[in-house]
Amino acid sequence: MTPATYLYVPGDRPERFAKAVASGAGAVILDLEDAVSVGAKAEARAAVVEHLGTPADGVEQWVRVNAGSLGSEDLDAIRGRPGLHGVFAPKATAASLAAFVDLPVCALVESAGAMLDLPGIVAHDAVVILAMGEVDLTADLGVVPSADERELWPFRMQVVAASVAGGKRPPIGPVHTAVRDLDGLREHTAGLRRAGFEARQAIHPDQVAVINDVMTPTAEEVDEAHAVLALLAAAGGGVCVDATGRMVDEAVLRRARRTLERVGP
Prior knowledge:
The protein is of the alpha/beta class. The chain contains 11 helices and 10 strands. It folds into 2 domains: 5-215, Alpha-Beta Barrel (TIM Barrel); 219-260, no CATH class. The chain starts with a strand and ends with a helix.
C-alpha cells in the first residue's frame, strides 16, 4: 500500500522517532531542514543516522535534507543506511537535483523557479514523486491566500499535471498548518484527493488518522475497481457497459487500476 500520510518529525528530537513510526502514518519524514536550528544540525544528523540503522516494519522512512553544501553532508551521512527509503529534496529545481543520483527523491515544489522548472524536475530519473511546499511557495510568490485558497489551486493543478505527464506517482499535498482544526483538515484533504493528489504531509500525529481516512480508497471503491477489471476481462477488451449503463473504456480502466495500486495486492 502506498502511503497516504507523510508525517514530519524533527531530526533533533530522537525521542519522537519511534512514536512517529507507530503513529499510523505510512511514511515518516525525519526532518534535518526547517525543523532544526542551525546550531543543532550536526546533532540531528547523527541522531537520524543512528535511527536509520534499522528499517521500520511497514513504514517508509524519508529524510528531508538541507539545501546546498549542508545537504551534501546530509546525503553522505545517510546514504546506504538500511532504514532509509528516500530523500525529500527542498527548494527543488532541475539543477539542484544533480546531487541526487542514487536515492529515490521526493522533490519539494516550493518556489517560483520550481513551478517554471516542473518539466525538468519530473524528467530527473531519481525523482519518484513531487510534493507541495506551500509555506515557502507563498512566501516566494508574495501570495496571501484567501480562505478558499483560490490563489493556490492553479499551482497545485500544474504539479498534478506535471506528475502525470512525467510518469510519476500522483503528488503529495501540502501540510495543514492549523493543527487542531481536524474538521478543516478533512474537508481540505478531500479537495486535494478530488484534484488528483494521493497523499499529504502532516506536522502532528493527530492529523494522521484523518488524512489516512480521506486519502485511502474505501472498500466500496476497491470493490468497484475490481468489478470494472472483471467486466472488461469478460468482454475481451475494448469498450463495454456496466450494470448501471455506464460506458467502461480505457479511461475508466486507468482509474480502477490506480485505485488498486493505492491499496496494494
